[in-house]
Design brief:
alpha+beta; 5-stranded antiparallel β-sheet; globular
Amino acid sequence: MAPDGMPMRSVELAAAVEDFERLASLVEEAGERVGITVGGELTGVVLPAAELAELEYWAQRGYGAPLPVPDASRESIPGPEQQGPYTRYVHGDGLRMTFTRDRVVVAEVRSAGDLAWLEERARQGRQGYMDPQQSAAFAEFLASQPPSTVPEDQSQEPGPHPEEMAVRQVTDAWQRIETWLRAHAPASYACLKPGASQGEIAALEEALDARVPADLKALWSLHAGVRGRQGAGFLLDNYALMDLDGVVSVYQMKMDSQRHEETLNAIRRAEGRGEDEFTIWKPSWVPVFSFGPTDLIYGIYLDTETGALHRWSNSYEAQDDERRETLITYLEEVADFLETPGLAVGARPGLAGGALVWGPPNHSDPDRLWVEYTG
């Protein structure tokens, strides 16, 4: 399966060997993996070099030693081969391959088994980079997830369950953000609360009377909100990750307002003014971010039915605003902008008093001068 949970594009081994120029260009242009099959069975994967470098980095942290290298093949290994702009290098084991263009590595081939091992070690490496309390909470969360299932008549190896993929993506994105905060914004990093236990998340679901999706559970199991005020609003648009008490408070306040609004809507319908009905809140809307750990006025909620994020406030509900990203894409965008500031559109990442602040800020603080972060 591809990283986003969709079926991975694949080619037969014979076709891949005969036309590795097309194979390398598919990976480089789309930035996605391509499977190599033999008789319809996945045996290898071609993946972008940058993705492999990240996996190997985290896998080595989890493995605690240099990554094992397969034994050298006894067969004669071909020398570099050129097809179009690409050069293919076959490694000593006869299995791994590297594709370059203009002497820059663009793609790598790994066996399906080696890649599965690498991904598991990378997951352990990311988890091992957490503090003990956070790691324990996240391990508890992972253990609570249902195993992936596949129909009995399906011959292909089962890929990750969509919820499992969502958990991985949220975890990867958040770990990238947290790694950046630890290195550059200690005041913001210090605001992070420990992860919530499964019991705490289950109690929250009961209080909300709503099903919390796996990606949001994964986020809360990493950190159940932030504390303090200085540096807490380090997400895009200076939003803060709400703590669980704040989530419940906003949700219940909004649902109380919606019940009152339903009374008014009934009157409007009775008066023939059905077009004036107004929705303040729906049971499937779960608040996630706000302008401060205790802010009850402005924020972003997750529509658990559609997976989309939208803004909320005390004065209006912008269901049709410009925000259409998911929790995953929102966090990935934050991580991308921090790691590559040149990608940032609109507000840019900067530092003020050891905290991450997206700016330039509207009002300067002489005690906390804002300095743009450029990498």
